[in-house]
Amino acid sequence: MQSHARIRTLAIGVVILLLLATACAPGKPAAEKRDYFKVGVVTSLSGSLANGGNITKRGYDYWADTVNEQGGIEVNGQQYRVELVFADAKSDPAQAAAAAERLVVEEKVDFIFGPYSSSATMGAAPIIEKHKMPHITGSAESPSIWKEGFRYTFGTIPAANLMAPAAVKTLAATDPTVKTVYVVGIDDPFASAVAEAFRDTAEELGLEVLEYTLVPSGADLSPIVSKAKAAAPDAFLFGGHPENHIALMKASQELGFNPKAFLIHWGVETADFLSGAGDQAEYVWGTTPWMPNANYSDPLWGDTKAAVEGFNLRHGRRPDYTETASAATGVVFMEALKQIETDGPPLDEQEKEALVEALENVSVTTWFGPVSFERSGEFMHDNIGLTVLTLQIQDGNAVVIGPPDQQEVKPRYPAPPWDER
Questions:
Q1: Under CATH, which number does the domain 162-288+388-420 receive?
Q2: Which phi and psi angles does 30 have, rounded to 5°?
Q3: Which of 18, 256, 375, 410 is 20 to 30 A off residue 231, Cα-Cα?
């Protein structure tokens, strides 16, 4: 009897030891493991910024589709498919914050792709910071984001105040006799930063700024155009979004406003602007950190040419730089994941911290170009090392007109009157 009791006691002890050993063993419990990474996406799929939100969505979708077609992200010899979970920022910073909260708390995503628009990013970033969630935006460009010094937010596109000056400098080089500019911006973090950079660059170059004004998103631009026409500037400089640019060009033709050049920051090469503005897009100037004829290697697609061809097969056109930067965002996460110790998704808090550290040290060439993030200063966690090009719409296509060492064709300048086009 005593021997049986002793055996029973020993058996129970062995079971307890095994249970304790299992609980203390490294790795996640089997019940928690996933065979895919769950990737949250905050972007505006409705509201006034839906056009831009869908631009980022196309880029993120292209990355996810390509990853899954190739069997998934390879981490420590295992491949994991990806699942994108979208949360609509509704073109509103408060809604972007709520969307980020839902992705972290309810959806329990592993990391986040960020919004179109700087205002939505500024809404989501504090929530992401609170939850210590790795986050890269493939679109937002306001310098105010990076000045906040967020630890968990990164961006693949250089800040607007690093990009917008390029077109003004090309204008001054094209026409040394240009004297006056008129500057208008939409009153949001991104567009106002563009307008401010236009103004400051013009002043640095010795140009007279006849007007600098910000207007609400959705405002009727006809009164602005009428006032600008009366001022008769050599060039009109505008910070906004594709829908604003389309409205600007329509109002300018209707009112016969014809400066020597219209300069906008981004979007001249987007399908939304080119189709929406139609013939009115001709002669407009813009800027970009990337063009489809770039020649970069890429760890997912192979190179820029292959990635552009794949996008063209899906959408019947070449991507713009925001779609490309958004797709490259996924590539950057892939490369950073290879640098951390993990037994796969879901990522725990320690693994997410390791992922953030890996992002701070990442240096990878993508089909968008080289990506590495500033680690401190006014551009902390922004990717600032790309060459900025000046574009012009000629015969319905965006072509490179500056800087001089990158120029493909000469600018068509000054723009002819509307009735002579």
A1: 3.40.50.2300
A2: -55, -35
A3: 410
Residues 6+ apart with CB under 8 A from 9: none
> How far is residue 181's CA from residue 198's CA, in Å, rounded to a whole number?
9
Return the structure tokens found at 202: 């013009």
The most distant pair of C-alpha atoms in the chain lies apart, rounded to whole Å, by: 111
d(CA 360, CA 168): 32
Amino acid at 284: V
Give the tens place of pLDDT for each residue, 191-244.
Answer: 999 999 999 999 999 999 999 999 998 899 999 999 999 999 999 999 999 899
Q: How far apart are CA 327 and CA 382, in angstroms?
A: 16
pTM of the model: 0.88
Spell out the CATH class of 32-158+292-371: alpha beta
Q: What's the whole-number mean pLDDT along residues 81-90?
A: 98
CA pseudo-torsion sign 349, 355, 356, 358: positive
**Domain range list for the chain:** 32-158+292-371, 162-288+388-420
Chain CA centroid to CA 185, Å? 20
Equal fold, 32-158+292-371 vs 162-288+388-420: yes
Distance of alpha carbon 156 from alpha carbon 325, whole angstroms: 6
Helix, strand, or coil (residue 25): coil
- According to DSSP, the residues that pair with 38 across neighbouring strands are 83
* Residue 24 burial (10 A CB sphere; 0-12, 13-18, 19+): exposed
**What is d(CA 386, CA 7) in angstroms, rounded to the nearest whole number?**
72
Q: Are 116 and 139 in contact (CB under 8 A)?
A: yes
| Cβ atoms of 233 and 262 closer than 8 Å | no
Residue 58 sits at the vertex; the CA angle it makes with 57 and 59, to the nearest 5 degrees, is: 90
